[in-house]
Amino acid sequence: MKLSGLDRDGNEKEFDLNDFSDKRVILYFYPKDNTSGCTQEACDFRDNINRLTKYAPVIGVSPDSLKSHKNFKEKHDLNFILLSDPEHVLAEKYSVWKEKSMYGRKYMGIERSTFILNNGEIEKEWRKVRVKGHVDEVISYLAQEK
């Protein structure tokens, strides 16, 4: 499955998740660039990138456009891959494209989730993630599983 995205350095390129199927990957889905929770989560991944990448690369995914991702990446100096999934193909594959509700209004959106993939298979998943402390949870899991 190919998706457009930005590499660690902010360069646009096509990514094929099969290219990562021979290793562990931290794949996290977030609802929207530059919103408070998503910014905090991305910055937590950014600030812990060295602790994370000794176990696996980090890939963030949202339905936002490449232009939005570029702004988000530059504004917050993000140092990991961001994928654009505007058609929700990857989100639907991982069952994170869900009906949500805010102030009584129902809409479709991303359920904040993180997956550890190992050889293309889901090794561990966190659904309905709470941002505070989540990256530490991921690191703790990876450290004990090594």
CATH class: Alpha Beta
* Number of separate domains: 1
- The outline comes out as globular
What's the order of the H and E elements? EEEHHEHEHEEEEH
Number of helices: 5
Proportion in β-strands:
25-35%
What is the share of helical residues? 25-40%
Radius of gyration: 14 Å
Largest sheet: 7 strands, mixed
Please tell me the CATH architecture by its name.
3-Layer(aba) Sandwich
CATH superfamily: Glutaredoxin
Structural class by secondary-structure content = alpha+beta
Cα-to-Cα separation, first versus last residue: 28 Å
Polypeptide structure, described:
The protein has 146 residues and is an alpha+beta fold. The protein has one domain (24-145): Glutaredoxin. Helices cover 31% and strands 34% of the residues. It contains 5 helices and 9 strands, in the order βββααβαβαββββα. It has helices spanning 36-47, 49-53, 66-76, 89-93, 134-145; strands at 2-6, 12-16, 24-29, 58-62, 81-84, 97-102, 105-110, 113-118, 121-126. A 7-stranded mixed β-sheet has the order 2-1-5-4-3-8-9. A two-stranded antiparallel sheet has the order 6-7. Strand 1 (2-6) and strand 2 (12-16) form a beta hairpin. The longest helix is centred in the N-terminal third of the chain and has 12 residues, at 36-47. The chain starts with a strand and ends with a helix.
